[in-house]
Amino acid sequence: MSAEPELAGARGGAAAPAAGGRSRLREAWKGAPLVRFLLRRLGSLVVVVWVVEIATFLMVRVMPGDPAREVLGPHASPAAVAALRHQLGLDRPLLSEYIHYTSGALSLNFGSSFFTHLPVSAELQSRIGPEIALIGLAVALILVVGIGTGLVVGALTAEQKHPLLERAFVLVTGLAGSVPGYVAATVLALLFSITFKLLPVAGDTPADAVILPAVSIALPQAALLARIVRVETLGVLAQNYVRSARSKRLGAPAIYLRYALPNVMTAALTLGGTIFTQSIGSAIIVENVFAWPGLGALLTQSVLRLDFPVIEGAALLLAVIVVVVNALVDIGVSLVDPRSAAQRGLELG
Amino acid sequence: MSEEGLAAAAQADVEAADAAAAASPRAGDPVGSHPVLRAFRRAPGGVIGAVMFSLLVALAIVGPIIWGHRATIENFGATYVNHSAAHPLGTDSLGRDILSRTLSATRLTLELGLAAVSISALVGFGVGTLAASLPPRLRSGARRVIEISLSFPPILLALFFVAMIGTGARGAVIAIGLGAAPGFARLAENYATSVGAKEFVASARAAGVGRGRLMGRYLLPNMAEPLVVAGLAYFAGAIIDISGLDYLGLGVQPPSYDWGTLLTTGVQAIYETPYAALAPALMIMVTGMSIVYLGEALARALNPRLWTASGHARWWRRRAATVEALVAAANEPGAGRPREDDVLVVEGLKVLLPTAEGERALVRGVSLRLAAGEVLGIVGETGSGKTLTALSVANLLPHPLRSRAARMDLAGQSLASMSRRRRATALGTTLAMIFQDPMSSMNPAARIGAQLTDGARRHRSLSRAQARSEALVRLGEVRIGDAKRALRRYPHQFSGGMQQRIMIAMGLMARPRVLLADEPTTALDVTVQAQVLAVLREIKEKENTAIVLITHNLGVINQLCDRVLVMYAGLVVEEGTRERLLRHPAHPYTQGLLASIPELAAGGGEPLRAIPGRPPAAGHEPAGCAFAPRCPRVFDRCRAEQPQLTAIGPEERVACFAAVADGGAAP
């Protein structure tokens, strides 16, 4: 008896064979939901970046009042205002200006800062490394601490064991989760660098200087993730496949590491995009506290000074980073979990 | 409430999973406590949150009236005071009193947060419901736009808006409000779509109710609760975000002050006057937490399924312990005569559910014996305790169920007398269990190969290669074609019948002497059923494995079993060889079961009968025979006295006064 026909080949994700035939391409398209999903995801990524680009272009054009007057202040001469309007392209028709702006953006040319008169692209370039270092460390901390704590506490509090631990966990994570990033940052800065003189607070790039801002960003989010992971762990531990593992008497370490963890991970990684986005958001403020030379600090300074070319460049770059990372997380999750890839493929189709 | 909750849940189904649900914390509400106390015990955070929030609102109203004037008095003789009788929390750079400023800033802070969340709610709600009322094609486009704007951090959106609108309280409020609007929009769109799909909305639409009225009359009231809960969460977020903008110098500008500006100026002088920063920071956190707790409690109150009560669990356990002392080890009569080759002996097994009133027995004393190579069928309706019996033998009862038995021997060794570690090894090497739902019983995140080999590698110390080659053999035995490829696949890539056969192969990897199969064919169609049964028969014959086959399908029993146990309401009511039991059932319940099955009903001409009535609620122990209310042969003694299992033949026993009186008459 052949078992092959029973194999649910269409659901096979990456393993699905591209059947040969007259219209190979068509078959492959139908038979490879993962490829289809990747192409779709790429397409929507391009669209989103485009929409963001239009939004940054429109910012100066639809804002209430005259941007040039806002920048130069009420005492500037009409000639200076007109010159700035010309520099901003406000005196040209919208469409031709948009084409001009877009071709600039595509060649990474956003003009020059009103204040430093340096090209915006150079400014951005110097900021991107520190930004990635900070966000990367923060996200890593969030994932490791959040998943680790959540899993351990989940395992300990399953089946209503250790009710005191459960209460303490809910209280502590609730507290840590509601501390705004800048408060955590201020308290940490005080505690560690000034009182204990252990870690540098501000500084250009000594490697340690990244630790405090990263911890400030990570703390509230790790707490929230730990809560989510704990509940997720409780759910996973109640699943039938954990009962199967128990019936094989694999022992607690194997059950938690090989049966619970991978299934909890899928759920936690699905949140990866949100975690990253949130980290970018809280970095905007935390970078200012620690004078970390990231994109968020640059954006805030530029908003304070109404330095429009830099605002446009920094906002666009941050948005692109957010969009690209979200897409990568999605794709990553699909590769880890073939089922979700197929589902998404169907869902979007 | 607790009574009904338990009874209803128990009635629905008492097989393992549901028994655990029936024991849900609701069952344990202590009787007679004050409703407020009970609410507090259920959600202490919610009550604290509600009280704190009310105090904050009161402070926001009276704060500026009482302390507003004092907060603006400048005193250049007393700047940067850290702590004094007149200024408990010190003064700022202009000698203004920090305490007064912090208290009177409550109003502006809450007002700005409220304004921002109102903007989010109005814009988000408008956009969301509008999106939901669009035709499907446009709706999915609108949904994508909402999703996209959600993928940006709100503070980034807010900065973008601040750059356009300008700094200051007004700009900050609008920017934060708009930044959080996408979240609201998605929520509103989700709810509007799901509520809109409900029947009453469809019928209203069919009745010609216009779109505007539909929204106001039908959709809004149904969406109100979740939106209020979400609104509270966004309110807390808005307060924190606005103070974040203050911190960046983009928010409230002097001489106005909210907690964010107080915090920012306080931080600049944190060494001289630490309270100047700590007081507003504390207020922001306290406000945030009180709102979050209030929201959680509200969500919980609206959704009883989220009620937790870890406290109750302890309370039950204490109660259960006292009852436990009273429940002596069950002393049921032995199950037939002992045989040398018995691989599994169970006597007087009880499965107990701890409740507020003490323990309830879901299985009330089951005894069984199983010889090598023998197949024992256990039949009975849902809720008769078949699965619970198997799970207790395998030591896999779900929390909080517990089992107690006078004797439980596996391969000649008493499980009760073993240490935990030895019991795990004994169960892992001599016993395997096959579950009802193969899809959910396999780890979705691991390949078949890993799941087949992990048990054998642990208990039998096989190498990876040895385990793999044995797995290939086992997969061949259960007729999985291309086993090599199957090892690399994930469970979801197989059909239901294949999954079930893989489950069996997984069980066989332990080389068990006893295989517990819980409804292994229930979800499968008839041809696949036949394949699975053929595999089981082969195992029994080739490897002399003893099998316990749990089913409610007498046809399956007929194909495979040597002996049969019939269970009803947690008790064995009849036991016998397959031929005897299927041809000449003694117990009226067994007779009823047989009569309800077409291919087995005796004599072609007799009409099929269903057994009237329903089985008793789980854990409800009647004084007499549990089947009495449904029994055609019932008489007075049945209602007063519990019939015991009595031998009516060499292998046959029955728990029925009428059947015993017949003397096993029938053959």
Structure description:
The complex is a heterodimer of chains A (349) and B (667). With 349 residues, chain A is mainly α. Chain A has 15 helices and no strands. Chain B has 667 residues and is α/β, with parallel strands linked by helices. Chain B is 54% helix and 11% strand. An eight-stranded mixed sheet of chain B has the order 7-8-9-3-10-11-13-12, with helices on both faces. In chain B, strands 1, 2, 4, 5 and 6 form a five-stranded antiparallel sheet that branches. In chain B, strand 12 and strand 13 form a beta hairpin. The longest helix of chain B is centred in the middle third of the chain and has 37 residues, at 211-247. The radius of gyration of chain B is 35 Å and the shape is elongated. In chain B, 49% of the residues are buried.
Please outline the helices and strands:
The complex is a heterodimer of chains A (about 350) and B (about 675).
Chain A: H1 24-31, H2 33-62, H3 67-72, H4 78-88, H5 94-106, H6 120-157, H7 163-177, H8 181-195, H9 211-237, H10 240-247, H11 252-270, H12 272-290, H13 295-305, H14 308-336, H15 338-348
Chain B: H1 2-12, H2 16-22, H3 35-42, H4 44-67, H5 98-132, H6 136-150, H7 154-165, H8 169-196, H9 199-206, H10 211-247, H11 259-268, H12 274-302, H13 310-326, E1 342-355, E2 358-371, E3 375-379, H14 386-393, E4 402-404, E5 407-410, E6 413-414, H15 420-430, E7 431-434, H16 438-441, H17 448-459, H18 464-477, H19 483-487, H20 496-508, E8 514-518, H21 526-543, E9 546-550, H22 554-560, E10 563-568, E11 571-577, H23 578-583, H24 588-595, H25 636-640, E12 646-647, E13 653-654, H26 657-662
